[in-house]
Amino acid sequence: MKTIEFKDKLSQIEIIINLYGKFNIIDGDSGTGKTFLYELINNNKVKNTICINTDTLKAWELAGNVEDSFKNILKNSADTLIIIDRADEIFRTNENILNIICLDDSSNIFLMFTRTSIFVQDITTWHNVEYDKENSKLTVEPVFD
């Protein structure tokens, strides 16, 4: 298990994310806080993380090198948490990114935020998110069936 811990500079909320395995998914309906958590990680410049979202994809599309850009990220990173917000949208518009992730043999770990199912469940770890307002602590824990 890999644990990512940091304190949000603005709200002073302590965030603890426990990841298990290579592929980790947080899913939920619109408005459930997935993008908020993604932005907390991105805005706090958490060590050894790379954040990718639909804006990143649009920039790659404008440059005409979506797949090469993603491959370069994987090639130039090790022991990195690669966080993908709106993964379902990104994979729907470019299936090859999903293939590249599935074939990645690096030590990177993926945390994907999605509204819909994107993988066969038995190769991923799903997560619950709990917020303890009294202690200003947000915890992301793996769920095992």
Describe the structure in your own words.
It is built from five helices and eight strands. The protein has 145 residues and is an alpha/beta fold. It has a single domain, classed as P-loop containing nucleotide triphosphate hydrolases (Rossmann fold, 3-Layer(aba) Sandwich). The chain has an eight-stranded mixed sheet. The longest helix is centred in the first third of the chain and has 10 residues.
What is the CA–CA distance across the termini?
Answer: 17 Å
Could you estimate the helical fraction of the residues in percent?
Answer: 25-40%
Question: Sheet with the most strands?
Answer: 8 strands, mixed
Q: Which fold name fills CATH's third level, the topology?
A: Rossmann fold
The CATH superfamily appears as: P-loop containing nucleotide triphosphate hydrolases
Structural class: alpha/beta
Q: What's the rounded overall pLDDT mean?
A: 82
CATH class: Alpha Beta
- In sequence order, what are the helices and strands, one letter per element? EEEHEHHEHHEEE
The poorly predicted ranges are none
CATH architecture label name: 3-Layer(aba) Sandwich
* Total DSSP helices: 5
Number of strands: 8
Shape: globular
User: What is the radius of gyration computed over CA atoms, rounded to a whole number of angstroms?
Assistant: 15 Å
